[in-house]
Amino acid sequence: MNVSPAYWQRAVAVLVRAGALALLLLLPAVAAAADAAQLAATRQDGFARMVLSFPERLDLPPYKLRQENNVIILEFEEPIAAALPDLPVSLPEHVAAAKVDPDGRGIRFGLRGKFILNSMEAGERLYIDLLPPTWQGLPPGLPPEVVTELAERAKRASVLAEQRRKAEQARLLNPASTLRVGHNPTFLRLQFDWSIDTEARFSLNEGGGYVEFDWPVPVDVSELKAAMPQQLRAVDNRVSAAGSRVSFKLADGIVPRFYANSKRQYVIDIDLPREEGLAAAIAAGDAARLQAELAAAAARQEAQDVADASATRYASLFRST
């Protein structure tokens, strides 16, 4: 099959147009992928400070910072989208010019003389200080509010890491809690029994309180809700990444006592009026006895049914012989 040169020319033209279209469609995505950066410049006590920040990040992108003669060069592995202020106006004694490289991978600062370059990282911010050649002592540090912010970030990161570790341990160890409600003549006892060791924190506030356990698994409070004493107005359990919290609202004047018998058993005692406590204890005892009697009766009936079935089977065999 012979193909004319005109055919090949048209085919090449179509491919070129398709490639150009694909490039145009790709450009917005590349531009969107560039990290947005902002630069702020201030004059401090005896030196100049520039702060390059990346608001959409939590850290700095990979970079290299160096000084060659009177030029500071800041290079990035990937393009950035940086907005530069008029540095010769903001820092007239330090910076003569500043520009972003055409490929977006670098920023260059032309200086008006020799300065000592000092840089510090703070999360997504890069601090660049220009110190005079006569500078003595330690270089300037980060602002106190930035140090406080970084400490808070580190604390939050530590808490999140611990929560992730606990969640993974819970998946592997499958911890479980049982709430036992004990009715005594003078107090109500809430006993939390755990299948594995756990930590607990107890807190009282106006009108109520809570006990929080480390493991993020539910605690069944249905038995307590079903027979709520007058001293408790509400009880609830909520599970979060931080653990399992049993919250309760108390009647006026009620102050519960909390203590740990072990790493697997925690107790809350709530005082009751003697008459109410005796009635509750008797009712609980009667219910327990009734449950035991019903269980014994069911066991006896099951044994009788087995005996009757055996007798019927033997009688049938005897008649057949």
Q: Per DSSP, what share of the residues sits in E-state strands of 2 or more residues?
A: 35-45%
Give, in spatial order, the strands making up the sheet with the most strands: 5-1-2-9-8
> What characteristic shape results from the CA principal axes?
elongated
Q: Determine the N-to-C terminus distance.
A: 99 Å
Oligomeric state as shown: single chain
| Number of E strands | 17
Mean pLDDT across all amino acids: 83
Helicity range:
25-40%
Structural class: alpha+beta
Keywords:
single chain; elongated; alpha+beta; 17 strands; 321 residues; four-stranded antiparallel sheet; 5 helices; five-stranded mixed sheet
Task: Describe the secondary structure blueprint for this structure.
Blueprint: H1 5-33, E1 35-43, E2 48-53, E3 63-68, E4 71-76, E5 80-83, H2 87-90, E6 95-100, E7 106-111, E8 116-122, E9 125-131, H3 144-173, E10 177-183, E11 187-194, E12 200-205, E13 208-213, H4 222-226, E14 232-240, E15 243-250, E16 257-262, E17 265-271, H5 274-320
Parallel strand pairs: 1-5
Antiparallel strand pairs: 1-2, 2-9, 3-4, 4-7, 6-7, 8-9, 10-11, 11-17, 12-13, 13-15, 14-15, 16-17
